[in-house]
């Protein structure tokens, strides 16, 4: 039996159990053995019967003097009684609804029992204890007399059953091949894989169990980092167009701005512009809170590329955002007489150097021809449309918004003739915790914009209880009267029969209620993903112009929508969103000089949920929230982590900065000695497997 063996080939795991185990995502011996315990119970301390105390739980060992089925006056209940004795005394045993014990345990058997000591009229007894026959050694014990694993269970699969099956599989398991180099094993005092699995499921001590878990978590992180760091080295060997930095042009650009760049923006811009000078492809991720000014840095990069005679493509996740970027970036670059194109499903336009303050409608064919001939400096559009339609004559830079990666092969597809791979600048308002930045996103260089533009007021954030709803509506009415606008976010578009969805606030219902009952004199609009494109654009146009006072929407507004006049963000069912997403919603307001507010409405009274929501009002920035979200909701809540196929036990260790840094250092040292991993064929195969599964595209 080996790790690849299917459960159908494992003795005592028939079709019924196979189906049940599938609920726990267990289909092979590997899945079974790497289904680690959620905790342990220590039954290794045996208490003499004379020392038993009422109300406490104990583990005893003794000889079974009697066991029999007793009568009970309650229907559908059986009672099994027994008496166990050790050198210090004897104690009664009572089992409820376990009649089979009369046949499995016999008078004279040496047994272990663990349970709570209870008192009745006849004195103390062990109530419904767990039992196991004594064996010659601790190794032979499975359920008692030792440290015992406790697993997350599913219907029909108990921890007791899992312990028995896992133990029988471990006994039959053939040797597992070691992928960790010997110097790492010795340096970290890690056990061999087979021994580590025994120590995780049937540990000699909790310390041994933890060390063995760390061994496998380190191994997974080590594999990921070998792959990530080897990809970095691979990218460094590919040629890209070097873009010389023209400081005079950049100085002119910053002087033309109507605001001063923050120190963070200056630093990020410098990192990007210096990267562009290199003859290898830039692979940089620019992180910054909503409204921190990432677009200005992107515009500076595009300007630098255009002045060097190359083209830039700027991809956004939605049409609304593409049009917004076209407008804002076009305005920033208007003094420099560049040709800027917009490519969306509904309209294609371009800004000509002759008319820098106006955009001209153009046919799709003409815009694509201009891109191919290198006659357009910058094209802005949605991810899907650009990847499908456009080829560039002289592409130097790819800017991509809210999609962390755009691989070498994907960049190459945008090229017409050139063999030089364009640089990549990825923008995100989703802060990435440090441990993920070192692992999952370790192939990208990071730039941070850690401060907001000067003069921005902090958004006042408040968790609103159900009884404070009316007061909040009155406040909204005052804000609208003062000329401001409001976002209302709901988790769903409409009600469904799904569990829990019936109590959930929906866009359609809230729109109906707010427009007819709460704010009948105000113009309340509605926006969601199922609306036709033209209708969505019309709603956003009216909201921008101030014709809609309150916009009820789904999370479609999460990314990039810019309404400077909006001062209130009200989020229904706030507990259903992650902290990072709530932070993104909050960033839709507070984009001008007005004081802005974010109200988090929840029907939940759970202290855990309320403290998580309150964290949003106390955290200073998105980076703090990202770290907190990682702690509270786990790694899987972050985009792009699930596709790695990393086991849950290693996923949880992605939050362990010390282990991540150790694994990164070990991977770096190994690659410096053997970049091709020639001496480590098993490691090389694992890295290749990751490459074919992920390829960072």
Automatic annotation (TrEMBL):
Residue ranges annotated for the Helicase C-terminal domain, each copy included: 468-631
Keywords, in A-Z order: ATP-binding, DNA damage, DNA recombination, DNA repair, DNA-binding, Helicase, Hydrolase, Isomerase, Nucleotide-binding
Q: Which reaction does it catalyse?
A: ATP + H2O = ADP + phosphate + H(+); Couples ATP hydrolysis with the unwinding of duplex DNA by translocating in the 3'-5' direction
Q: Which Pfam families match?
A: DEAD, Helicase_C, RecG_dom3_C, RecG_wedge
Q: Name one GO biological process term.
A: DNA recombination
Which positions fall inside the Helicase ATP-binding domain?
275-449
MF terms from GO for this chain are:
3'-5' DNA helicase activity; ATP binding; ATP hydrolysis activity; DNA binding
- The domain of life for this entry's organism is Bacteria
InterPro entries linked to this entry? ATP-dep_DNA_helicase_RecG, DEAD/DEAH_box_helicase_dom, Helicase_ATP-bd, Helicase_C-like, NA-bd_OB-fold, P-loop_NTPase, RecG/Mfd, RecG_dom3_C
What job does this protein perform?
Plays a critical role in recombination and DNA repair. Helps process Holliday junction intermediates to mature products by catalyzing branch migration. Has replication fork regression activity, unwinds stalled or blocked replication forks to make a HJ that can be resolved. Has a DNA unwinding activity characteristic of a DNA helicase with 3'-5' polarity.
Q: Family assignment?
A: Belongs to the helicase family. RecG subfamily.
**UniProt name for this protein:** ATP-dependent DNA helicase RecG
